[in-house]
Amino acid sequence: xxxxxxxxxxxxxxxxxxxxxxxxxxxxxxxxxxxxxxxxxxxxxxxxxxxxxxxxxxxxxxxxxxxxxxxxxxxxxxxxxxxxxxxxxxxxxxxxxxxxxxxxxxxxxxxxxxxxxxx
Length: 119
Ligand code: FES
Ligand code: FES
Fold this sequence. Notes:
Elements: E1 13-16, E2 19-22, H1 28-31, E3 36-37, H2 50-57, H3 67-80, H4 86-92, H5 104-113
Antiparallel strand pairs: 1-2, 1-3
The chain binds FE2/S2 (inorganic) cluster (2 copies).
C-alpha cells in the first residue's frame, strides 16, 4: 500500500518479526527470511483480533485508509506497554496520520483493547 511515499503517514505499517515498521521504508532484501504480518493476517478462524474489534466497537475509523497501519502500530505499542495512558497512546501513534477521525476514538479504541478504557 502506498500512502505518502515519504515515510510520514504510517498507512503502510506492518509487523516485521513482530515489530512495527513502515513498509515503504524497508527494502525487500531487508525483509528476506523474516516474518511479516499484515492486517490481513490478524484475524483467525473468522474472529477479529482484539485490536481490530476495539476499533470497530469504538468507531475508530471513518474512511479506513489509515486503519490497517493504526492497528498494526497499536499492536506494537500494546506489546511494549500493555497498560498505556492516553498520552502513551498518542505518543505511540504519532507516526500514523488520520485525516478523518480527530484521533479521539482511535485513542479510546487502543485503550479499550488494553482493558484501560475506563481510566
Ligand atoms: S506510505 Fe506513508 S509511511 Fe509508508
Ligand atoms: S479514518 Fe480516514 S484517514 Fe483515518
